[in-house]
Amino acid sequence: MRSYTANKALGQHFLADKNTALKIVRSLNEKLVHHDVLELGPGQGALTELLLELDSINLKVIDVDSRSIALIS
């Protein structure tokens, strides 16, 4: 996956550890069945990538940084 430098003026901090992202999604998986999920500020998509693998949710993603949207589109 391509990446870019965080824009501190936007308060960006990226989740880079895939194991941490996996733990987060696994802990939410059972709670998210048949729910709409809104991810704000997906950054470089560490969580987005895993959330998209869940068939049981309807994922929407919003970010003010166009670089993030371009990266995960």
Features:
alpha+beta; single chain; two-stranded parallel ribbon; 73 residues
Structural notes for this entry:
This protein has 73 residues and is of the alpha+beta class. The protein has one domain. Helix content is 34%, strand content 16%. It is built from three helices and two strands, in the order H-E-H-E-H. The protein has helices at residues 18-29, 46-51, 66-72; strands spanning 35-40, 57-62. The protein has a two-stranded parallel sheet. Strand 1, helix 2 (46-51) and strand 2 (57-62) form a beta-alpha-beta unit. The longest helix has 12 residues, at 18-29. The termini are close together. The model has no long low-confidence stretch (mean pLDDT 88).
Strand order of the largest sheet: 1-2
Helix content: 25-40%
Can you summarize the main beta sheet? 2 strands, parallel
Rg of Cα set: 12 Å
Question: Summed up, what is this model?
Answer:
By secondary structure, the chain is α+β, with helices and mostly antiparallel strands.
